[in-house]
Amino acid sequence: xxxxxxxxxxxxxxxxxxxxxxxxxxxxxxxxxxxxxxxxxxxxxxxxxxxxxxxxxxxxxxxxxxxxx
Length: 69
Description:
The structure is a single chain. The chain contains two helices and no strands. By secondary structure, it is mainly α.
C-alpha cells in the first residue's frame, strides 16, 4: 500500500504534469495557427505532449488503482 505522504507527492507531480500538458496544448495551438510554423518544433512539442499524457495516466493509476470486480 502506498503511504499518505507518497500519495500527496504523486498528486503534486500529477498536477504539475497536467499543467505542463495543458500549457503545451495551448502553445501547440498557437504555433499551428501562425504561419509559417516550424514543423520540427511542432513535432517535438506533440511528442512531448504524448509523453506527458502517458506519465499522467501512469500516475493516475498509481493513485487510484483499478479494483478487480
